[in-house]
Write a structure and sequence with these properties.
Layout lengths: L2 H19 L2 E7 L3 E2 L14 E2 L2 E8 L7 E6 L7 E3 L1 E6 L12 E2 L8 E3 L4 E3 L12 E8 L3 E2 L2 E3 L7 E4 L12 E2 L3 E2 L1 E8 L4 E7 L1 H4 L11 H9 L4 E7 L14 H10 L4 E7 L2 H5 L14 H17 L3 E5 L19 H16 L5 E3 L1 H5 E2 L2 E5 L13 H10 L2 H5 L11 E3 L4
Parallel strand pairs: 18-19, 18-20, 20-21, 21-22
Antiparallel strand pairs: 1-17, 2-13, 3-12, 4-11, 4-14, 5-10, 5-17, 6-9, 7-8, 7-11, 13-16, 14-15, 22-25, 23-24
Helix pairs in contact: 3-9, 4-6, 6-7
GO molecular function: hydrolase activity
Keywords: Hydrolase, Signal
InterPro entries: GDSL (IPR001087), GDSL_Rv0518-like (IPR053140), SGNH_hydro_sf (IPR036514)
């Protein structure tokens, strides 16, 4: 072959190598979008019905850091265009404050105002705001026209701030109202060094952090982010309270949202799936009083589908066992979440996760949290008090028990005493 024929090939290889070794966009934070439900459901939405000539300031904590960032908004469940009048981002101070001098304008195709069609997402231009790993950002969005809050994230364990008028450039919002949840804010991407990548945790309220201390970043994914940040690995929380593998209501079912919430995340290398407890617990309870009882076979079939789809995209998939829930929500208006028959289903699902050999690795979360004297219930010191969700100590125990080498695929074939069992990829 002549040198003239070889040169284009060498040039292509050089370009590919340069691209692989340069900075890359990686998902560093996320909140999965949900559709607003009506008043017939037992839980209130707890969000404003709409915004008009108002500003919302969200505080988020990154996992992996970078020298530039992008903000992603979602109008996934909107029936009308989402109009954004202006947006700014800065380093977060205390409460609703922004660190002086850190605020930056966020533009979309060079414009400070933009709109997203129904069902679409908005990805901002790169913002020159260097942010370290685990940095906290304040993102302020002004909505100038009537904006129905049709796409939101329920109960995010972080307080947003709402004020009248365009307050995107304000250093603080002392008179702001507060509410629970996220409106339209979907993700933060960072331009990270070469080799950076992300782990997405697909789950329900246990992943979303219910039972942890609000505004303290004490979900188990937050603690995991602290562990992984030194290695340049981001953690994206794709948990939705009330989420199910097979059913809708508080967010689309996992099979329906897997592509957007997991596979579409820039830099995703692995996904942890910790779902199924609501599929088992909801039927016959006030959440889904008319749903038939769930079988272990149906849960396993759904997990098999997620495994197949992850494999098709070369994403490593880790299966987490379902944690104990005896007595869950007893004595509350949601009584009926647990029963001995439902416990049998949970045990059968867990048995398949641990011994089925289908996941690339297994995280035995059940082994971490269960009471040795009564394995169907959570250890008291890890229980938030509702017997369904861990508290801060339980979430911390979960995050520290996960074996990182199994998560990233660096080690195989061993069972660790901390509850993280690894299996070879098949």
């Amino acid at each position: 072959m002549s040198i003239r024929c070889i040169l284009p090939v060498l040039l292509l290889l050089w370009v590919q190598a340069a691209a692989a070794s340069g900075p890359r966009w990686v998902a560093s934070w996320g909140a999965s979008p949900q559709a607003r439900w009506d008043d017939s459901f037992i839980l209130p939405v707890g969000m404003p019905a709409s915004f008009e000539q108002q500003s919302v300031r969200d505080v988020v904590r990154l996992s992996v850091g970078g020298r530039r960032l992008r903000i992603v908004l979602s109008n996934r469940h909107g029936a009308t265009p989402l109009q954004v009048g202006e947006m700014r981002v800065g380093l977060a101070g205390d409460g609703a404050a922004v660190v002086a001098g850190s605020s930056r304008a966020v533009t979309f195709a060079g414009s400070v105002h933009t709109s997203a069609a129904p069902g679409a997402v908005l990805v901002s231009d790169p913002v020159d705001l260097p942010a370290a790993a685990l940095a906290r950002l304040a993102i302020t969005t002004y909505y100038p026209t009537p904006t129905p809050v049709s796409t939101f994230h329920w109960g995010a364990q972080q307080t947003p701030y709402l004020v009248q008028g365009n307050a995107t450039a304000a250093d603080n919002l002392p008179a702001a109202a507060r509410f629970a949840g996220r409106a339209f804010l979907n993700a933060v991407l960072v331009e990270a060094p070469a080799g950076a990548r992300s782990v997405v945790v697909l789950g329900d309220s246990i992943t979303d952090g219910n039972g942890s201390s609000p505004d303290q970043d004490r979900r188990w994914t937050d603690v995991l982010a602290q562990r992984l940040a030194p290695a340049g690995v981001g953690v994206v929380n794709a948990g939705i309270s009330g989420a199910r593998l097979l059913g809708d209501r508080m967010g689309a079912n996992a099979l329906a949202r897997f592509d957007q919430d997991v596979l579409a995340q820039p830099g995703v290398a692995s996904v942890i799936v910790m779902m199924g407890i609501n599929d088992i617990g909801w039927p016959g309870s006030p959440f889904a009083p008319h749903d038939p009882a769930m079988s272990a076979e149906r849960v396993v079939d759904a997990l098999r589908q997620l495994i197949a789809r992850a494999r098709a995209h070369n994403v490593r998939i880790v299966g987490a066992t379902l944690i104990p829930f005896e007595g869950a929500l007893a004595g509350t208006p949601f009584e009926g979440h647990y029963s001995p028959a439902k416990e049998v289903v949970r045990q059968n699902v867990n048995r398949w996760i641990v011994s089925g050999g289908q996941f690339d690795a297994v995280f035995d979360a059940d082994a971490v949290l269960r009471d040795p004297a009564r394995p169907s219930r959570m250890r008291a010191e890890y229980d938030s008090g509702d017997h369904l969700h861990p508290g801060d100590a339980g979430y911390r125990a979960l995050a520290h028990a996960l074996d990182v080498s199994a998560l990233m695929g660096k080690s195989e074939h061993r069972t660790e005493p901390d509850g993280a069992r690894r299996r070879p990829r098949r």
